[in-house]
Amino acid sequence: MNDFRQEAESLWGETKEFQESVGRTKKYSHADFAAAKIDQEGATELFVYAFGNGLGVRSANAQEAVIVHRAAISKWFYDCNIEMQKNLAVLYLSDDRFKKYYDDRVRGLAQYVHDAIMAQK
Q1: Domain boundaries, the chain
Q2: Domain 16-119: which topology?
Q3: What whole-number distance in Å separates Cα of residue 61 and Cα of residue 15?
Q4: Which residue of 6, 51, 90, 94 is most buried, as measured by CB atoms within 10 A?
Q5: Cα separation of 88 and 76, whole Å?
Q6: How confident is the model over 67-83, as pLDDT tens digits?
Q7: Half-sphere exposure in the Cβ direction for 54 (13 Å, CA)
Q8: 57-94: b (≥16 Cβ within 10 Å) or e
Q9: What is the pTM of this model?
């Protein structure tokens, strides 16, 4: 088991979302994981577009990115409701690995993604 998987299991192993994700992903091929990454990258690019064009976190474009982000997680890993997505958004700022993922794209993107997710109704 890799370090990330061990960490995730120690933090969330008892949750239904973690169990659902493990159940789904253990059946995935390399092609499935590649397709999941493409979907996640697509959502990130929608955030990059909205942020890079100075659109507010409540703009239609930013909120479309929020929806696509949640849909990609639900499609590939676990049913991601709005509350769970907001929990993830907190990690995007508090966990340096997530923050780096977004801020390596565009400085300040992690905060924007967090704020856009938190702004949804």
Answers
A1: 16-119
A2: Globin-like (1.10.490)
A3: 32
A4: 51
A5: 15
A6: 999 999 999 998 999 99
A7: 0
A8: beeeebbbbbebbbebbeebbbebeeebbeebbeebbe
A9: 0.87
